[in-house]
Amino acid sequence: MAGIYIHVPFCKKACHYCNFHFSVSLKTKNDFIAALLKEIPLQQNYLQQETITSIYLGGGTPSLLEEEDLARIFAELRVQFSISETAELTLEANPDDITAEKLKIWQQVGINRLSIGIQSFFDQDLQWMNRAHNAAQAKDCIVLAQQAGLSNLSIDLIYGTPGLTDDQWRQNVDTALALKIPHLSCYALTVETGTALQKMISQQKKEAVDAEKQARHFLLLMDWLQEAGYEHYEISNFAQQNSRSRHNSAYWAGEKYLGLGPSAHSFDGSSRQWNIANNALYIQSLGNNTVPFEKELLTPVQRLNELIMISLRTQEGLNLTDTAIQFGEEVEQQLKRRSDKYISTGRLMLNGQSIQLTREGKLFADGIAADLFFSEKTAVVLQ
Q1: Domain CATH code at residue 106
Q2: Fewer Cβ in 10 A, N or C end of the chain?
Q3: 348 within domain boundaries
Q4: Do residue 88 and residue 214 come from a single domain?
């Protein structure tokens, strides 16, 4: 089983917090589509004929694409790859792009899941983020999608913004629950280097992020969604029964995936590669039938550390038996010893043969994972 990710590098406007690769000019959209249609057959063998069980169109803003664009993309994908009849086909969409006509088009090309960039149900938050939609559109687009029969929905929510009170955060979550959204992706506001937000904070034009507030919002979120019956299956993701994101779950399980489009990343089990994050150069290179990418062959230590990082983020945690099979029993023993201090402080727990983050430990997930990492200079001989 394998997945395909397609990066659509266009947006109507730049959100202040975003550091993803995109352009607010659509002048090269047609050239991008032509280049993408050339890349698809050139990458046909990357996944070694494995059946595709998920396709995810992200960005950027894929909901900006026209019917003809999507039809041509999916037609070429079906020619070049074996796509499962039950594959999860997700489109990221902004609320202001969602109309009854577009919903019909998306379903006709095979889209069966939407990931909607809501972020907040409050106008003041959306304006602060420089989002293109308003609070009314945030609610209306969900109802519209459900009425069209697209009930497999995920929405993004951001917490910890300076103007978001605890009560407003509760209202955001309650609104999502009232709308019966089966999947929620919830993120603490991150101030990324080089973004408009980072610049405005450094110039004291916007208030800095409050880390204590973010931690409080995350703890409240976990409590509220547990009470509502959602499983916290990954640090930032919550799902009702049988509503996990199949595509992202494959990432966290270390399965293979192919990334298409500028800045898209791919993983084949032993190496990673990533396309150039430049629309013009991507288009130019594919004009010469060449995929513009860089590649890194992962060392055993890198593969081990990635396993630690992605596994700890999940509800299932890091399985020590599987780790021993892949990397040797000495690695398993070292992981047990390294975990002891976090188990004793209540931030990790040993559940059978799996090391898992506790509720409090999820606040420190990245730091704990990094502390468990192995060095390339380690004396352990990895299998």
Answers
A1: 3.20.20.70
A2: C
A3: yes
A4: yes
Amino acid at 156: D
pLDDT over 80 (residue 381): no
The answer to whether residues 218 and 128 belong to one domain is yes
Asked if residues 117 and 95 have their Cβ atoms less than 8 Å apart, the reply is yes
Q: Distance between CA atoms of 216 and 166, rounded to whole angstroms?
A: 8
- The 10s digit of each residue's pLDDT in 270-308 is 999 999 999 999 999 999 999 999 999 999 999 999 999
The three state secondary structure string of the chain is CEEEEEEECECCCCCCCCCCCCECCCCCHHHHHHHHHHHHHHCCCCCCCCCEEEEEEEECCHHHCCHHHHHHHHHHHHHHCCEEEEEEEEEEECHHHCCHHHHHHHHHHCCCEEEEEEECCCHHHHHHHCCCCCHHHHHHHHHHHHHCCCCCEEEEEEECCCCCCHHHHHHHHHHHHHCCCCEEEEEECCCCCCCHHHHHHHCCCCCCCCHHHHHHHHHHHHHHHHHCCCEEEECCEEECCCCCCHHHHHHHCCCEEEEECCCCEEECCCEEEEECCCHHHHHHHHHCCCCCEEEEECCHHHHHHHHHHHHHCECCCEEHHHHHHHHCHHHHHHHHHHHHHHHHCCCEEEECCEEEECCCHHHHHHHHHHHHCCCCCCCCCCC
For 323, the domain range is 300-372
- How many C-beta neighbours within 10 Å does residue 125 have? 23
Asked if residue 325 and residue 244 are part of one domain, the reply reads no
In this structure, the chain runs to a length of 383
Pairing outcome for strands 2-8 and 348-351: unpaired
Query: By percentage, how much of the chain surpasses pLDDT 70?
Result: 98
* pTM attached to this predicted model: 0.95
pLDDT higher than 70, residue 89: yes
The CA–CA distances, whole Å, from 326 to 46, 151, 323 equal: 23, 39, 5
The count of structural domains within the chain is 2
